[in-house]
Write a structure and sequence with these properties.
Strand content: 5-15%
Largest sheet: 3 strands, parallel
Distance between the termini: 19 Å
Structural class: alpha/beta
CATH architecture: 3-Layer(aba) Sandwich
Order of helices and strands: HEHEHE
Number of strands: 3
Number of helices: 3
Shape: globular
Strand order of the largest sheet: 2-1-3
Radius of gyration: 12 Å
């Protein structure tokens, strides 16, 4: 299964657009999903981001709220 098929199609947003969205909304209104490897996450990540490495994504989709916008990086 292609991991992209797990998400409802949405708009691609630039980093500046995501920053603006985050500034205008409460942290509980959206999800930040970091799909990198744990060592990359440990070196630095966006505060509040959830780590689910891309290889684990299909198995761990239940951890995400499908009703919230999700920003994946």
């Amino acid at each position: 299964m292609n991991w992209k098929s797990l998400f409802t199609p949405g708009a691609n947003m630039s980093p500046d657009e995501v920053k603006s969205f985050m500034a205008e909304h409460q942290p509980d209104d959206y999800q930040l999903l970091d799909v990198r490897q744990p060592k990359e996450y440990e070196k630095g990540h966006i505060p509040g981001a959830m780590l689910i490495p891309v290889k684990e994504l299909t198995e761990r989709m239940g951890e995400l709220d499908r009703n919230k916008p999700t920003f994946v990086y």
